[in-house]
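FAQ

Q: What does a record look like?
A: Structure on top, sequence underneath. For example:
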C-alpha cells in the first residue's frame, strides 16, 4: 500500500493542474492571484475586496469526536466531502488550516488529509508552504525584541519586567525552551528576566491573523495587544511602543489566503493554523469568507473535537463572519469510539462491539452539544480498513436510534467517489432551517462564561479556579475587559481537562489554572489542567522518517 506522500507525488507528476486553472474554477484570473511557482498562489487582498458584493454560498463546518492520539482523519474526510460535492455537480471550495512544523516533525502529522483525499503539493504545504509560519514567527519575535530593547534603552514606559506577558515563539516542538532566562551577559545584553517560548501557532499573532479582515484591522488588533504592566499596574499595549505598523508590515503577505488544490482538482484555500487545544483552532476569516463568496458550498474545519474547535468556531469565529454554518458534520470512527469505550490502543484493530457501544456516549454528547446551537448536524463515519461490517452497521444503527442522519465515508480509500452518499446527505441537511444561537452572552461575567462552557459543553459538575487565576480575573474586571468571548485551552483527548477520562465523564471539576486577556485577538484564554503551549517531541519523532534524495524528492512525510 502506498504512503500518503507517494500517492500525492504520483498525482503531482501526472495530473496536478496549474494553479491558474484552479483559480479559473472559482472565477479568478491570473491578475487576481500571486503565484508561488506552478501549483501554489496567494489570493490578492484587492481580489477579496472585489468579491465582497458576491452572495454567500452554503457553509459546512466539519468537526469530530474526541479522538485517539493519532487522530481520526477529519481533514481527510473534509477533503473527500468537497471532492464528492463536485462529483454531484456542486461548486465546492475547501477552507482549511495550514499545518505546523511541530506535529509534522513530531507525532500527529500535518493537515493535508491522507490516502486519496489530500490537498497538494502536500510536502510543500506541510513544510514551508508560502512562508506564513515563518513570517508569524519573525513578527512575534520582532515584537519581543522591541520590548526588551525598550527596557534596555531607558524604559520610558516604566514597564515592570516581571509583568511582561509577550512570549517568544518557534514553530517546532522544543520543550527545552518552555522556561528560560534571557538578558545574561552584562549591561550591554539587556535586562535579565524570565521568559518563555510558545509554539508559533499558539501566538496571539496567529489568532489575530486568522480574525483580521484587512490590513487596517490587522494593524488595529496588533496595536491592542497587551504586553504587560507598568510599576503602577497600568496596562501597556503595543500601541504604547508605536510599533504596530512595523509588525503588520512583516505580515503583509501572510495575511493573504493561499490557494492550492486537492488530488481531484477541487480548489482549496489553506490559510492560518491556530491549534484548537491551545488557541481557537480555525482557519482565517479571510479564507472562509472568500471561499463563501466564490462557491456554492464552502467546507471548513474546526480543530480537534467539537468540544474544542467547533465550540470556538461557533462562539468566537461565527460572530465575525457574515453567516453561520448551514450544517455541521461530526466525524466519528469505530476505532475512536472503541478507545473511548475502554479498548486498549494496541487492540483497536480487533472487533469489539461492547467497547463500541460503551464509547458511543462520546459521540452522543458531541451531537447534543452541536444541537445546542440550533444548526442541523449529521454524522460522518470515517471508515478504516480494520473496521468490521458489524461494527460499522452497529454504529450506524446507534446514530439512527438517536434520530441523527448518518453516512459512511470511504474517502481515504476512494477519494470523492467514496463520499458521494455523504455529500448528498450534507446538501439535504444544508436546506434545513438553521437558527444559530450563541452558547453564552458575552456580557456575562468571566466566571459565568467559563462555567457555561464547562457544564454545558464538557459536562463538568463545576469549575475550580486557582488563586493565580482569580487574581488574573480581578485584573480583567478592573480594566473592563470581561465582555470578551472565552477561548479554553484544554486537552483534545477528553471532554474533561484530564486526557485519561474518556467516553462521557460527568462527575468532574474543570480546573482553571490561569486566565489571560488577548485583547488583539479579542478573547480571553483560559488555561485548564496541564495543557502546554510549547509541546515536546516524542521518543521517536516523525523527523526520523523524513529524508530527501539527490533529485530533491521528499520522502517519509506520512
Amino acid at each position: 500500500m502506498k504512503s500518503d506522500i507517494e500517492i500525492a507525488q504520483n498525482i503531482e507528476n501526472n495530473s496536478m493542474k496549474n494553479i491558474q486553472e484552479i483559480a479559473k474554477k472559482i472565477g479568478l484570473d491570473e491578475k487576481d492571484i500571486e503565484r508561488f511557482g506552478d501549483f501554489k498562489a496567494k489570493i490578492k487582498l484587492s481580489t477579496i475586496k472585489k468579491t465582497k458584493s458576491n452572495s454567500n454560498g452554503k457553509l459546512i463546518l466539519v468537526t469530530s469526536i474526541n479522538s485517539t492520539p493519532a487522530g481520526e482523519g477529519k481533514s481527510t474526510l473534509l477533503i473527500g466531502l468537497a471532492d464528492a460535492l463536485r462529483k454531484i455537480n456542486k461548486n465546492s471550495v475547501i477552507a482549511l488550516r495550514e499545518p505546523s512544523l511541530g506535529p509534522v516533525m513530531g507525532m500527529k502529522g500535518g493537515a493535508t488529509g491522507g490516502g486519496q483525499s489530500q490537498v497538494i503539493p502536500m510536502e510543500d504545504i506541510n513544510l514551508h508552504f508560502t512562508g506564513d509560519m515563518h513570517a508569524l514567527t519573525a513578527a512575534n519575535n520582532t515584537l519581543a525584541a522591541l520590548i526588551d530593547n525598550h527596557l534596555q534603552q531607558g524604559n520610558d514606559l516604566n514597564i515592570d519586567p516581571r509583568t511582561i506577558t509577550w512570549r517568544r515563539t518557534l514553530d517546532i516542538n522544543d520543550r527545552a525552551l518552555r522556561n528560560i532566562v534571557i538578558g545574561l551577559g552584562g549591561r550591554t545584553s539587556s535586562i535579565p528576566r524570565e521568559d518563555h517560548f510558545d509554539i508559533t501557532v499558539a501566538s496571539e499573532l496567529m489568532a489575530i491573523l486568522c480574525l483580521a479582515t484587512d490590513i487596517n484591522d490587522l494593524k488595529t488588533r496588533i496595536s491592542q495587544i497587551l504586553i504587560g504592566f507598568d510599576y503602577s499596574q497600568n496596562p501597556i499595549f503595543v500601541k504604547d511602543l508605536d510599533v504596530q505598523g512595523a509588525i503588520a508590515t512583516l505580515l503583509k503577505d501572510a495575511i493573504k489566503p493561499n490557494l492550492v488544490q486537492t488530488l481531484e482538482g477541487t480548489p482549496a484555500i489553506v490559510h492560518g493554523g491556530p491549534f484548537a487545544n491551545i488557541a481557537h483552532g480555525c482557519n482565517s476569516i479571510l479564507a472562509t469568507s472568500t471561499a463563501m463568496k466564490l462557491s456554492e458550498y464552502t467546507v471548513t474545519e474546526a480543530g480537534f473535537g467539537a468540544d474544542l474547535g467547533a465550540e470556538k468556531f461557533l462562539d468566537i469565529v461565527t460572530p465575525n463572519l457574515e453567516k453561520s454554518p448551514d450544517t455541521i458534520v461530526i466525524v466519528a470512527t469505530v476505532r475512536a469510539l472503541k478507545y473511548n469505550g475502554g479498548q486498549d490502543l494496541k487492540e483497536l484493530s480487533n472487533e469489539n462491539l461492547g467497547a463500541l457501544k460503551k464509547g458511543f456516549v462520546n459521540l452522543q454528547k458531541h451531537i447534543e452539544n452541536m444541537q445546542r446551537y440550533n444548526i442541523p448536524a449529521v454524522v460522518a463515519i470515517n471508515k478504516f480498513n480494520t473496521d468490521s461490517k458489524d461494527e460499522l452497521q452497529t454504529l450506524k444503527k446507534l446514530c439512527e436510534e438517536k434520530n441523527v442522519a448518518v453516512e459512511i465515508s470511504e474517502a481515504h480509500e476512494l477519494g470523492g467517489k467514496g463520499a458521494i452518499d455523504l455529500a448528498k446527505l450534507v446538501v439535504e441537511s444544508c436546506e434545513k432551517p438553521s437558527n444559530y444561537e450563541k452558547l453564552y452572552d458575552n456580557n456575562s461575567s468571566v466566571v459565568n462564561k467559563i462555567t457555561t462552557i464547562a457544564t454545558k459543553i464538557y459536562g463538568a459538575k463545576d469549575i475550580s479556579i486557582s488563586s493565580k487565576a482569580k487574581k488574573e480575573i480581578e485584573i480583567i474586571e478592573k480594566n473592563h475587559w470581561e465582555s470578551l468571548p472565552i477561548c479554553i485551552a484544554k486537552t483534545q483527548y477528553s471532554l474533561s481537562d484530564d486526557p485519561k477520562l474518556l467516553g462521557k465523564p460527568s462527575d468532574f471539576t474543570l480546573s482553571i489554572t490561569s486566565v489571560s486577556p488577548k485583547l488583539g485577538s479579542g478573547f480571553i484564554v483560559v488555561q485548564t489542567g496541564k495543557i502546554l503551549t510549547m509541546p515536546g517531541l516524542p521518543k521517536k519523532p516523525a523527523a526520523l522518517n523524513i529524508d530527501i534524495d539527490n533529485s530533491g524528492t521528499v520522502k517519509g512525510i506520512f
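Q: Is there anything notable about this one?
A: The chain has 20 helices and 24 strands.
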